[in-house]
Amino acid sequence: MSLKLISRGVLTVALAAGIASAQLLNSKSIDVIRVEKVGFSAGRIDSLTQALALQQFHGKKVNDETMTQVRYAVIDNLVGQELVKLECKKLGIKVPANRVDSLATLFKKQFPSEDAFQKQLKQSGQTMAQFREKIEDQLKSEELLAKKVPFPKDPTEEKKKAFWELNKEKAVINDSISGARIWISTKGKKAQEINDAKDMLKGLAAQVRTKKAPFAQLAAIYSEDKDAKKTGGVMPKFVAKSKGDAFVKAVNKIKVGEITDVITDKDGVYIFMLAERNDGKYESYKAQIEYYLRLQAEQERQMKLKGYLDELAKVYKVQYLDKKYTPPQAIGGK
Asked: Dihedral through CA 325, CA 329, CA 332, CA 333, nearest 10?
């Protein structure tokens, strides 16, 4: 089951989608799922599905199969949220008002002004009290799930090395590397302008090293590579020597995850962050190993989460009333 239950992203979608106004009964307004006394109509699910697809795929056309998977994710979230909400109520879980205030303020900062937020709130058909109630429910749910299905801890160095020892014979060893760069054109620029560009790149590298900003975000903003805004400056696998001696010399000085000094080529200046080096050494695969172990741990957590929700579905009645709106491994399904 691939879902992130009770996420702030879902809260955003719910606010944007709103609640449909009362209409004469039609196929879209009839409940297709019920959790105890709470019903979810086809219209509401479809509206949230469209909103989530628009958000995740940035307005690109989505095929029917993918849209079905998005709809199942929405259904899992709606059912899961309601089950957890019922359990929180049963257990009497409370959250301090200042935590609700803090999250509400954080959410409102996503809007350019208070007026813009109030306008969106009005369009969604919600009052501020209802909006705060949603936040409170979310915080209660997070508190319960943190106890029942806690997030995995970061993989230890010992665990990463153990994984490497078990799998190092499978490691691909060749001359290829990959990473990302922030490149500034020097074509037609004077010496002072070029020096200014170099200083800017040094400053950007410092921001990444001090964790003030991710490399991809800075590349999307500052890099003059034509595709950087879409790719975050990512350069697919290539052989280092294909980029010239200066690049090879700079890359040989750094480890995976580090950034080069400013490199100069015939058309520009740039910094490069090394993401992958296939040289058969543990340090070069460390980032990949950590990513895999995190992914594996989260997949295990998702399985535990599904099991916990299935247990709640034995306590609180869940009904799927329409095959189209019944995921293959529906929460509480048989």
From this structure: 70
